[in-house]
Amino acid sequence: MEQSGKIGKEKLSCRGITKSFSSSSGNFEVLHDLTFDVYENEFLVLFGPGQCGKTTLLYMLAGLEECTEGEVFHNGEPVTGPAPSRAVVYQTMALFPWMTVWDNVSFSQKVRKAEKKVIAERTQYFIDLVGLTGFEKSYPVQLSGGMKQRVGIARAYCSDPDVLLMDEPFGHLDAQTRYMMQESLGKIWENEKRTIVFVTNNIEEALYLADRIILLSDCPSQIKKEYRITLPRPRSLVSPEFLKLRKEITEQMNMSD
Amino acid sequence: MRHNYGKIRVVLYGAGTFLVLLSLWQIAAMTSNSEIGFPTPVAVIGRFFHMLSNKVGSYTIWGHTLWSLSRVVIGYLLACVLGVVLGLTMGWFPYVKALFKPVFDLLRPIAPLAWIPLAILWFGIGEKYKYFLIFIAAFVPFTLNSYAGAVRVDRQLIGAARMLGASHSQVFFRIVVPSAVPSIFSGAQVALSNAWMTMLAAEMVRSSEGIGWLIIAGQGINDMTQMIAGMLAIGIVGFLLANGMRLLERRCLVWNNQGK
Lengths: 257, 260
Description:
The complex is a heterodimer of chains A (about 260) and B (about 260).
Chain A: E1 10-23, E2 26-39, E3 43-47, H1 54-62, E4 69-74, E5 77-78, E6 86-89, H2 101-111, H3 116-129, H4 145-158, E7 163-167, H5 175-191, E8 195-200, H6 203-209, E9 212-216, E10 223-228, H7 240-254
Parallel strand pairs in A: 3-8, 3-9, 6-7, 7-8
Antiparallel strand pairs in A: 1-2, 1-4, 4-5, 9-10
Helix pairs in contact in A: 2-3, 2-4, 3-4, 6-7
Chain B: H1 2-31, H2 41-53, H3 61-92, H4 94-107, H5 116-123, H6 127-151, H7 155-163, H8 168-205, H9 211-220, H10 224-252
Helix pairs in contact in B: 2-10, 3-4, 3-6, 3-8, 3-9, 5-6, 6-8, 7-8, 8-9, 8-10, 9-10
């Protein structure tokens, strides 16, 4: 492919992955023969309509779901299960409700039995980074939706992953909070560059955040088209270039195959 | 202000019903011409306070209550430890479930009271048989609720913990156990009232102290006042235990309450 000018080497590689679920009414295919790479420090958005397969695809990258066919490689090694090197930010947040913000964020460091001093520094750093300073002792139930997802992002970052996998992390938030979180995430990522794979069905969100967008078709999902987004950051949601791309991708998405 | 006023009214209504019932009881007892003298509430309350400082049998009512409580506490704590361990491991480790769940399912519908004759045969009429019965009564709800708590752990939290690097044992101790705590607490409430009830039966069958004994001894000498005063003690202590447990639960489960 025409990837020559890209920032880094391949982090994740999907080779012909297919996923189908069997039910009483037969096999239901959600992903069909996907092959693509994710490059180092790239912000890749998997964008597509409806509810078909995007989350499943992300879970397969994480190792939380098995491929029916094909394989996922992470730094050349086949992915066989979940690992701290690929942290997931869930749409449902999936915070540990009995732990405070501090304990949620520091969890990965604690289970790895890191040094106390290291744990404290890292945890504080990422809590500060996502703007939750002062809420260290709060429980998730005491936080708003946007704040909860900040905890989710800090928790994923704090485990020092090689790749961050985000599953529609702002899907449950109201529009206003969503804009704020997109802006925050953009800034966080500028400060702490990581390889991010981000799933969404919101075109604005995709265009605001992505270096590259992979447009997926509806069920079973296949790669329809790829877009490299080179608009300067921070992006304006109303610049003519932005709106033009938005129109183009939306039309492409709605076109039947 | 208005809110407080409403609260006061609720309390007043409750107290009103209580007073009406007590008055009816008082009037009925005073006008009754039955041969067995039915005690008035005033007499019962009077006797209750009398027993606080005067011995019935070998102890004051404080002493009897402590005896009953100590039996409940021992059987209950034993049931708590074993029930929670068995329930959680059965809920999380398939081979523990395969080993113990069938036996447990077979034994659990047997009411604790059905064990009384066997328990006396095995342990004699001393303290041990009472501990055993109370243990059985509390063990079942503890085990069942711990099991349910472990089974119903949010799978996504398990996935999240694993992707954050938790080992299998860390997943069990840091995720499964704490997320089962609310369920264990509701088991603990049921276990407590079961234990408290079973203690009475055990004491009534065979003992020489305790609130159960107090009531049975009252029956032996046709002293209805003593029996009802004993029942009053059961009610008060049972009420305090249940509320104490609720308080403890609220303390331990701050994260489960809407930010309180």
